[in-house]
Amino acid sequence: MKNDIKISPSILSADFSKLGEEIKLLEKSGADMIHVDVMDGHFVPNLTFGPPVIKKIRKCTNLIFDVHLMISPVEKYIKDYAEAGADIITVHPETTDNLARTIEVIKSCSKKVGVSLNPKTPTNVIENLMDKIDLILIMSVNPGFAGQKFMPEVLEKVKFLRSKIDNEKLNIDIEIDGGIDFETAPLAIEAGANILVSGTTIFKGGNNVSENIKNLRKQ
Questions:
Q1: CA triple 117-82-10, angle to 5 deg
Q2: Is 3 a residue whose pLDDT tops 60?
Q3: Would you call 32 a catalytic residue per the annotation?
Q4: Residues 151 and 176: beta-carbon distance below 8 Å
Q5: Are 102 and 126 contacting, i.e. CB atoms less than 8 angstroms apart?
Q6: Of 21-30, 35-44, 122-131, 181-190, which range is least confident?
Q7: Which of 4, 15, 37, 134 is catalytic?
Q8: CB-based burial label for 167 (10 Å; 0-12, 13-18, 19+)
Q9: pTM over 0.85, yes/no
Q10: For the chain, how long is the longest CA-to-CA vector?
Q11: Which of the residues 66, 134, 173, 177 is marked catalytic?
């Protein structure tokens, strides 16, 4: 298991009126990467960032851009997000009619491949593709909105995948997103997650961002 716990703050909870400043603050405060939630109002009931915004904020930091595409159909937009500055591109199996092909499209853009599993999405949709995946994002809420309550039942999925990754000596990160706070972070880490996405918890308390990141990491 990867022992170094990484924190990927979700800028969905940042102050959009000063997004560049918020990203610089996250970098200064010890964030390992920036989690960018892209929503299309179709696959999920909300709208967020497109490639032009990502291209602008890319100039604000050298941190890894962990771009989570909640858009359908996803494949035709991958190149746009790659060119805008994504480092990791994460897709949902439900947004493509051929996940293996979509993975190859991400690889052809020289980006790391992430696949996200919703709470009800079974692990068998990716089990025969794991040698092609760099990151598995486990959703611990139903995707679409910030601030939802953590769903503990997904921890069994994390445990199963961690065991499979370790047993098969695969180099895959397990990321978890949804309701991650000081109480749920240790549960996720214990189950086998090594990247924590958190928005509401990191940004609450104004200037305590650095402290919040530190406290999440040490859970």
A1: 50
A2: no
A3: no
A4: no
A5: no
A6: 35-44
A7: 37
A8: exposed
A9: yes
A10: 46
A11: 177
